[in-house]
Design goal:
about 475 residues, alpha/beta, 9-stranded mixed sheet, 4-stranded antiparallel sheet, 17 strands
């Protein structure tokens, strides 16, 4: 009898252990994911190996991109750092979040509806590392871990700073060390985390002329490579612009002279641009090693995006701002180890926008996006739960001509209509058959019907999305 009781107790003990193990396993499987959002500065869409660039070395980005979802047609709704970053945080167009310059802060109400604030309310540990890039008073109070490389939000970070031991350190290395520190502090916490990492690279260091400041260990990268000149680098493409645009005070032209204006400068600085991106790629690799070592890689989503694109000599320019592909098109991938099989290793042709980042991150965390967000959850888009967008509105208002002429337009998969609104100068490009945008079709009678149709669509989008700030004509630059 005694033996039977012992057996019964043993069986009961076994079932209790099995139940607890199953419960723990189920809890682990249902744990909300960790999310790491990586933002590079001025990385254009084709400056990554996985996007077809045969020269640049980005093996860690490529590995994540090819294992996850690689978006082929990702754009920003405004191509300038401060506005694009505000759009990423809020999921809104410029005309709704009202960040139109470098000094304006998001209001307290707007901050409360950013993806970090909403994740904080949902119980996430929050980290921010790098260049916040919106206003002079970033919301440090939101974050459990904060490394601000902008010196309190007072401007563009320097590439070379001094660490606590008095040693010179490159900004990319500063961010790499900070990522490791964050993971040491919060990687093992019971609460999930969302870490936003914002690199300065590959943005140039402002100056006259600007420079690309690389880490010395990358100086020999690409030294035996000849970077091919862009299709539109020939002088005739700059000369095609109207006189209001074709001035020496145009920022894009002035920066081209200092960085790309001779064959020697072009080779040196495009290689430096690539070197800075390779430096970021190595940080991504070290981050992935750390996640593996900690045993949390399988529950951590990695998203990488550029905040805007970059002219590297196209149309005789350097910079961004204007509505050409090199300026407004950026890389984007989402790596989620637990993605449905049907969208793993997928090259997504759908149009994705910077305003989609916030609602996508919130959906991944199981948090409902506010109605004020104008972007969409990209995973729902790929799963056909919401309709695919056919076009989007582009808006750019900062500073104005002659330095940076203001522009609005409509971008579809096949055509692009742009209007320099201070001069009512129109451009129409067949980007499907003319991807380098060499032939402005706005005055071609064969395309009058297409032009008229896009003008109508432009007005529709402008009326609903494109209202600029009331005082935009009087705003002064605030670099």
């Amino acid at each position: 009898m005694k033996q039977t009781k012992i057996q019964a107790l043993f069986i009961l003990f076994f079932f209790v252990l099995s139940f607890l193990h199953a419960k723990a396993q189920n809890s682990a499987n249902n744990k909300r994911p960790n999310i790491i959002f990586i933002l590079t500065d001025d990385q254009r869409w084709d400056a990554m190996g996985a996007m077809g660039n045969p020269i640049i070395k980005t093996p860690n980005m490529d590995k994540l991109a090819t294992a996850g979802i690689l978006f082929q047609n990702t754009y920003v709704t405004t191509s300038i750092c401060c506005v694009s970053r505000a759009s990423i945080l809020t999921g809104q167009y410029e005309s709704r979040h009202h960040i139109n310059d470098f000094s304006t802060d998001l209001s307290a109400k707007e901050v409360a509806n950013t993806y970090p604030a909403l994740l904080k309310n949902a119980g996430y540990n929050l980290g921010f590392i790098g260049k916040f890039g919106v206003g002079n008073h970033p919301p440090e109070h939101l974050f459990d871990f904060w490394v601000d490389t902008e010196a309190g939000g007072k401007g563009q970070p320097d590439y070379i700073t001094t660490d606590k031991n008095g040693n010179k350190i490159h900004d990319t290395d500063t961010l790499g060390h900070a990522i490791q520190n964050f993971l040491n502090h919060y990687g093992d916490d019971e609460k999930p985390f969302c870490l936003s990492v914002s690199f300065k690279a590959p943005h140039e260091q402002d100056g006259n002329p600007p420079t690309y400041v690389i880490q010395p260990r990358y100086k020999n990268y690409y030294e035996n490579v000849v970077i091919p000149e862009p299709v539109t680098a020939a002088p005739k493409y700059w000369d095609q612009f109207p006189s209001f645009f074709r001035t020496e005070t145009n920022f894009a032209r002035a920066r081209w002279k200092g960085l790309l204006g001779t064959p020697e400068l072009f080779q040196e600085n495009v290689k430096n641009y690539y070197r800075l991106i390779t430096g970021v790629d190595d940080v991504v690799g070290e981050m992935m090693k750390k996640l593996d070592q900690m045993g949390i890689a399988k529950n951590t989503i990695i998203i990488l995006m550029g905040d805007n694109g970059m002219f590297l000599g196209e149309h005789g320019m350097e910079g961004k701002w204007y509505g050409y592909e090199e300026s407004i098109r950026v890389p984007l991938f989402i790596y989620d180890p637990n993605l449905p099989d049907k969208i793993k290793q997928y090259k997504a042709p759908q149009i994705a926008l910077n305003i989609d980042i916030a609602p996508t991150i919130l959906a991944m965390a199981g948090v409902k996006a506010p109605k004020a967000m104008q972007g969409v959850d990209l995973i729902s888009l790929l799963e056909n739960k919401i309709p695919e967008r056919k076009d989007f509105f582009y808006q750019y208002y900062f500073l104005g001509g002659p330095q940076l002429p203001r522009e609005e337009g409509v971008v579809t998969k096949d055509f692009k209509y742009m209007n320099y609104i201070e001069h009512n100068y129109e451009e129409l490009f067949d980007i499907k058959h003319d991807p380098h945008e060499t032939d402005n079709l706005a005055k071609n009678p064969k395309y009058k019907m297409k032009l008229d149709g896009l003008r109508i669509r432009y007005k529709e989008l402008k009326d609903t999305l494109g209202v600029p700030p009331k005082d935009w004509e009087n705003r002064k630059p605030s670099f």
